[in-house]
## 1
Amino acid sequence: MSEELLYWLAGDLRWSDFPPKADMIATIAALIVVAGAIGVVATLTIARRWRWLFDNWLSSLDHKKIGIMYMVLAFVMLLRAVIEAVLMRIQQALSVNAQGVVSADHFAQLFSTHGTIMIFFVAMPFISGLINYVMPLQIGARDLTFPFMNAVGLWLSAAGAAILMASLVIGEFSTGGWSGYPPFTELAYSPGEGVDYWIWAVTLSSIGTTLTGINFATTIYKERCEGMHLFRMPLFCWTSLCTAILMIFAMPPLTVATALLALDRYAGFHFFTNGAGGNMMNYANLFWLFGHPEVYILILPAFGVWSEVISTFSGKRLYGYASMVFAVMCIAVLSFTVWLHHFFTMGQSTNVNAVFGIATMLIGIPTGVKVYDWLLTMYRGRIRLTAPMLFAMTFLLCFVIGGLTGIILANPPVDFQVHNSLFLVAHFHNMLIPGTLFGMIAGYMFWFPKAFGFRLDERWGRIAWACWSGGFLAAFMPLYWLGLMGMMRRTAISFEAAYQPWLNAAWAGAALIVCGIVALGIQLVVSVRRRSDLAVPVGDPWDGHSLEWWTPAPPPEYNFARRPRIEDTEAFTNAKRDGRAYHAPPSYEDIEVPRNTLIPAGIGAAGFVCAFALSWHIWWAALLGLAAMWAGVVLRSLQGDTERVIPAAEVQRQNEAWLDCARQTAPVTRFAEVERINRGRAMETT
Amino acid sequence: MSIETCTNADCSGSGHGLLSPAGLIAQIQQDHLIQTVLIVSVVIVPVFIALPLLLWRYRLARQNVYSPEWRFAWAPEFVIWGVPVVIVGFLGFSLWHTLHRIDPYRPLGTGTEPPLHVQVVGLDWKFLFIYPGEGIASVNELVVPAGRQIAFDITADGPMMSFIVPRLGGQIYAMAGMRTKLHLIADAPGSYRGLNTQYNGQNFARQKFELKAVGPDEYRQWVRSSRNGPALDMARYAALAKPSVIDRPLRFGRVEDGLFGSIVAAYHTADRQPGDRLSSAGDTHR
């Protein structure tokens, strides 16, 4: 076959891009991905679950199922990214004046995929998933405003994640880090498919996230039930709203930045090249115009979770609700005014640096207020140290340390020294692990009984907490010190013997974090096995305050038999107190829910084909993928009959079955909330 | 940097980076770090005290006072907003003041001697130092007189890099076609590690150099002996600029006139292709 024909058919893709790879560890990783994929397909086939998977999950537009699928995506990607983190820790611990176990180039791919995955394909899906599941229930809605668009967002994110997985098997990934700074990521320094994989994976995710943000904001503005004024929403909804607004305004700069970089690489433009008038400073500004609000996109939903968890397990109203809302809004607005602190060292004037440094420290004020609001929420409460609450305590203690180092980094005089160092790495992991990730784990444990109808095993939850907390401290506190000693990030080898003990501690911490993940896995398996012991069909195991607890566990696809009408933030608490929580509504109505459709999954699949083909310059397939994506959108707009009616009689039957169950269930006090007798009907205890 | 064994004192990190400043700038940076930690402690230490206390006093089993509906009071509200506002005001003032003292573009107000000018070119994966006053150049070895401030002009001929000597101060980016500035001083003779902190390819971790601060006589002697080195003309520069790791420092006795300026200017001429370096002839990066 001639070279030209081969290029026309397969672009730059050749057999040599497939495994085995030059590096043994890379080959093993590729084989694990392939084996995993084959394993999933085989299991589904043997268990005859394909139809079930398509009918119940892949084609669903139900916000709750989409939320759960987001979380599954996040957990799968978390597994990969943590393994990469451990490999990097091993490499750095073994490469003080030595070679270590992976090549420098492989190490660079590891930190690039680790960062990209953790931000775009672990934290973001976790957040989108949790908001998807919880927020509509909390505001008494039946679904998001745009269920179809919601599914498109999910499948675009999944397509981006699939690109990351494909890059592990076919070809190589970018070595330019999660931020992809040009000019290093330009063709002159990074030829090959790696940066293109990064560009298209991130682009798919950023488009999906923009759509999701629009959907969340619209839902909160338009779908609240009667009486749910903005200032009666649970705090999680407020943080979801702020996150949604940040998504809408922060994701487009990223999409633009990656699109311009793509034009440089594909079409010979010079936006960020060294020569011909390009200027990488523009990229730095665009990227962090996204990148800094992104940090708050990641942390704000966790603030919402902490507010719910701490107030519920303290048996109290949230202290300073209005103050908290004001603080969150301050953080959201200020987050757009500080992006320059990511490059104090780029040579701009001292006054500019000073202004952005002070603006950054201003964010510390509302954030500090929130910490004290949580402490005051615990004051004069009835505190139970359940697993989610334990995570909350680790969060509070670690988060103030992260706040301190954040203030330190906001000071250009010190930032000049620790920029690009492990001090910075320690700081953002300090915010993202106890802040975001622990928040997501706590949220998962807190709302799991709602989603699946049974509680998670408490003992393994506590073991997971101990491993995660200890592991985090051991892995990242030494990095602060190493950063002050002058050890820089992204170094595959180092030459200072004094680093060794600290790197060893960090490695041990990473190992402990792996134990934490294993414990979470065991917790899930144990809980599924004991699900009848742990069942909470009535749906309110923790004496919850907000509307999501006022539904069966798991809730029906239409959420509420009759949409509630509320008169206070803690409507459910009041209803329980007045003894009218489980009364039947006067009448029932037909309910419309969206019909299932496979078009969103199809759009995601086409997006994957397009992105993969673009990375390898297979132009015909890229065009085909793009055309198929648009065809999916057009096809949907031609569909007339997209809703399905659940008759009032059926709603009544289901709702009365639940109410009967609730009435027959013995209420439990908080003393027994992790005992077997907790069937989900919590009773107020004084 | 030679291979050292890690004694107890050494492993603690003393003698490294910001923990052990050896120049005015790094000293100010360390002082500022310590001051910031102390001020911020006012708001974070109470959290460490209050949290265990709250957990103990209000645990369910203890059946202490319970006020489930208590949700707001003005007194704590003033404190939790007021104290951080005051502290950030204080920190902001101190930030402004310190930052202007160590503005990397401003000459330090120390000593009577004029600063020593050094031009730094970040290359894959080494640093070229040009001494315009002395007409010499070196690679991966920066010898300077102790106690005399150094005024750096910095650029890169390659992807972006970042220039730092942790025990003295810095850092600032080195970018192709651009010129950044930095002023540092070494208070006492000694050998200090300098490095690139911005990832720029597979040998990034090997892009480091030694800054040697020496007495005035020793410095003059070093300059004199350097003059014996080969000339750094355009051809030799082109070879040097190709991606490589230089294990042992190089010295050049003469430097082509205006080399630094032409390295910066090269990225501004219209006929340059994107990503070209001066040494573009057929090199590959990876």
Note: The longest strand of chain B covers residues 116-123.
## 2
Amino acid sequence: MKKLDAETTPEARPNPDTLSGAPLQVRGLSKRFGGVTALDGVDLSVASGEAVAVIGPNGAGKSTLLKLISGVHRPTEGEVWLGEQRLDRMPAHRITRSGIALAHQVPRPFHGLTVRENVRVGAMASRPHPHPGEIDEILARCRLDTKASRPADSLRVLDLKRLEVARALATRPRVLMFDEVAAGLVGRELDEAIDLIRQVHDQGITVLLVEHIERVVRELVDRVLVLNWGRPLAEGTPAEIATNEEVRAVYLGDGDRAQAPPARTAATGPAPDTAAVLALESVSAGYGDMVALRDFSMRVEAGQIVTVLGANGAGKSTLCATIMGAVQARSGSVHALGQDITGMATHRRARLGIAHCQEGRRIFTGLSVAENLMLGAPLALAKDEVRGRMERVHAIFPVLAERATQQAGTMSGGQQQMLAVGRALMADPQVLICDEISLGLAPVAIDALYGALAEINSQGVAIVLVEQNVKRALGIADHAVVLSRGRVSYTGDPAGLLSDEALDAAYFGTTDDTTPEAGSYSLLAAPVSRPLSASEGDPS
Amino acid sequence: MIRTTHRRAYALAGAALLAAAAGCAGNASSSSGSSSDDGPIVIGTSISLSGNTVLNQIRDGYLLAVEQANAKGGLEVGGKKRKVELKVLDNRSDTNTMIQQVRSLVLTDKAVGLLGSCCQQNIDMQGQADALKVPLVMGALPIELLPKGKGYTWDSFQSLADGAKDFFEVAAGAKTNKKTLIVTNNDAQGISTGKLWAGTGEKAGFAIAATKSVPTGTTDFSDVIKAGTSSGAQVLIASMTPPDCFAMWKQMKALAYKPKLAIGLQCAQTPGWGSLGKLGNGTLVQLNWSDTAGLPDTDLIVKKYGKKYTNLTDLGSVALGLHEATILMDAISAAGSTDAAALNKALAKSTTVSAQGPVKFVDNKSVSPTFIGQWEDGAIKQVWPAKGGSPLASLSGLG
Amino acid sequence: MSLDVLAAGILAGGLYALIGLGISLVFGVLGLMNLAHGELVIGGAYLASLLVVDSGWDPLLALPLTMAGVALIAYPLQRYLLTPLLRGDKSAPLVATFGLSLLAQALFQGGFGTHPKSLPAPYATSGISVLGLRIQTIYLIAFGLTVLLCAVTHLVLTRTRAGSAVRAASADPATAAVLGINVPKVYAMTFAGAAALAAAGGVLTGVAQSFTPSSGMPLLLTGMAVMALAGIGSVGGVFLAGVALGVLQSVSVQLFGGGMRDVVVYLAFFLVLAIRPQGLFRKAAG
């Protein structure tokens, strides 16, 4: 291939002997954002031409690792070496010139530029600049040659991802890192993405993948590093990792141990004719030309706990956003507490009695704990009443009373999550939506939160529990809904999901006709997955 | 989604309307006729009627002159009386717009003569008149400031040197220690004004205690005032934009600097000086016109615009407009032709006597008289020349 | 360096701080650079002139009414014009404020003429001696009022629930909405509050100096300079930055003459932007 020749010519690679075979080495790498440790002493060595995957649950530090290598963030401790070159002290553009490229999870083309111009901009980092023929070559390899003069904005998802890879290739990388490039792709698109990465690897470029989709990992790499809580958890071949019990436990949460809240008797035992506090009827919603939620219906009765589970991009966050009005339903209706709220403004829904504890906590880090709590209560509420509610929240989360005057951002993750739930309770809601509240928390913190949820529920508050921690959620819920690619794939008794087989079937169920090979997914890929938009490992 | 999009669209439309309303206020002129032999004789002006400078008074003077001429049946050209049509375009204080408008007046509307705007725009307009070879009559530009052009521009206005000489003549009559403080803006015009007045003052026996220049928009004059108090200057000459003088006068009073005689060139001429109340009393100004000086057409101006404009400076601007337009139209009659060259020759020999007195062009410039006025309770009174004027009062506002 | 130069600078700085505070508030909370802020200031002066010049009120009596009046005009502008624009392209609301600025100038011109106006008051032209320094009374009043308004603004923002709602809407509007806070209303209230501050600055400017329909622009530039010096998000920082700017101007005039005043100020402005882009009086973001 022409490009390969160019790559190994002396002008392009000043010192081919020492550099082409240079391994990527990460030694004792740590990164702390404020008080939060995103990465803690990670070692990784990738030989030249090798393909390695980094996996781990959300918040494990995978993206942070890639960002540290590519120079987006500076490590707090540790070193990154490419052969004889130490990278961790270089500015990002020089790291790129030394041969490290990163293809992002969410493609970020330069809007208003054509596909070719986008690639040419990517090529500006390499010295000497690639000639036009080389850019054509890259475009052809990424199957963008026929779309070269189209504006980048007009591309569909797969082509955008190709463009992302093409831009990375234009920097003549020796190491190309893929940050969940396959996320959001299905069926043939996924095949093509895998082909593209394989082709890159076959050229002799070292590949470092962060990936959730097990098939991508299995087909492309020889070695997998599992991260959890910023630390290495396991390392081995894809087959070894797939059967590693410790890894399974990390992915499914600690629910096996904590299934304790035993056979929770439904708090109010609702009669079938009871008016639902929240009801969605055939709701569809999405962003741009993407439909994230299709024909979704759900009823939440007063005092019920309903859990919503699902894999990456299944539509869970879109569902929450649609209930709260951040995303408008395109069709169907949303009713809550006896009113049609389909077109209502977000703040009115909140005042109606729906509290949303958002994913990522979203507390006001610059405000004090007490101020955060008070913001949860309506502004017009009398001071006594605010104080009363605050006392009730303090009774559930005593730590919030102890830290009332502390700046919220300085608390630990678990405390921040408690604050987020407490703040939602200040509205005295009838429906509480909890989006991934156990995410990234230590088991003891999760215990405390789930205990609190049970208590809140016993006071008559209906809870919609959106969770990745499957076993935990199933342990507390009265009713379970599983979303798969925007559609309901399971709805019914949580007990029906307790076996691995049943969960697999619900997550990647037979209803999805666009993925003939769906059955080949294993549990490894399942609850790990996260929505496209989630930015992980970067709490700042 | 749909709802917000609509609201945004409305808001955008609203913003566009706002911008349109704000940006495109003026410029409502029809361009119809040309100066065919039977139609009206077209004369034109691109004048600033909005933006930083608003010259409605001068425009009113132009209109008054044209109205007078047409009431007499128009101008006799080629043995035939023809009406005069004045095209007024608002250049919104923008020089580029002015240049475009002058070109379109001459090339599209076939204007046979042009009337000026004010100040720097007049200087810029000279180049256009010379290039298009169309006569341009202007005032509102001291004759010393008219650059040497190619002879198509005719300036009939006051002389800076006369003005300075006149002031010191007034000052010599008052009891002062002749120590003088000069403060001007630090632009080219301000600095040259400062030099001119300092030179004239020294010739007239005054001592220049200090000369200060400050940027436009200065609000803190403690530095200048200190120079005044420490030198004991009793004569103050300020040549600044009105806001600067307003701030300085207030600060002078507050810091107890009390000159005996003060003139506000540029700044005290604005009718807004009256809003200073008593503080403005006694401040001297230069005038290009006075209703008590016995100038021609005084009654006409006062009768027609005395209600609309209640102060001397505004009426003086009407007089200026009337004067300019009369010079141009007299020249058309004298030439008996609308031919530019003939018209230009007639202007050189102009013997017009109009609202600012007799005209006699030397090197395209004709000096009109300068008057000194003094503010007293919200109005300006002529104090010099003594003929027709009131006696000089004390500078009571700062006392 | 004489003390009176310093005193004049500090006192003039109070007025700068008052004008900068409104700009900074709107930018900090709404993320909107309000190019019509100068016209809000001048609008306050014109509104007050109706009461002061035409009805003979004392400017300080007219001040609260003027603040309320300008706030009432500003509220719907934000609520129904600027907030809907904020949802879209970043440049649309900026352009809209520029349009508003031009429109306001045209309205002032039509309604009040182009001649400069001034608000007469006994304290505009009186001076008092403090520690042997002769000081213009109005600047002392303006300084005191600025301290008061800055303190009130600071207390409202930090000690009241409405204030924390403003800070919440500033930090994360989406989350604020989820908590039941009517973010468009918070924006409009903030804008109205900033307009009221602007109007107060306008009345004081009118008394101390003068105003014309086009005097808003230099005031806007001064306010922007104050904001850049202060950084976003601290009332105390804005106050200090205003005073610093006043002293800088005053001292530079003393040292280099009047002609260098703006050069020195803008040089300082760029130096601050280059060396401490987060502003002089704000800690770097962590």
Note: The mean pLDDT of chain B is 88.
